[in-house]
Design brief:
- A 5-stranded mixed β-sheet has the order 4-1-3-2-5.
- The chain has 2 helices and 5 strands.
- It has 90 residues and is of the alpha+beta class.
- It has helices spanning 18-29, 51-61, and strands at residues 3-12, 32-37, 43-49, 69-77, 87-89.
């Protein structure tokens, strides 16, 4: 069964290829959804998959790529209809 989470990541997360590496990690894990920059300087990710996939992706998002510096992560469950078929950068 697939579940979805909306995750907001704050800190130094824009301008450090965060979305690019999140896309690569999502593909590696088989997670669907999207990642996008937000006007306030944070990054938002919608991730959908099994609980195991979501846990792995949430863990990755909590630190991001090497050049990022994550200071805060906000997670909320999300109901999505229909489920996304792939992962993309918005």
């Amino acid at each position: 069964m697939k579940h979805c989470l909306c995750i907001r990541v704050a800190g130094r997360v824009q301008g450090v290829c965060f979305r690019y590496y999140a896309d690569m990690e999502a593909s590696r894990l088989g997670v669907t959804g999207y990642v996008r920059n937000m006007p306030d300087g944070s990054v938002e990710a919608l991730i959908c998959g099994t609980l195991e996939q979501l846990n792995a992706m949430q863990q990755w998002l909590s630190h991001g790529p090497e050049m990022a510096h994550v200071t805060h992560v906000q997670v909320s469950e999300k109901t999505v209809e229909p489920m996304p078929g792939d992962f993309c950068i918005r």
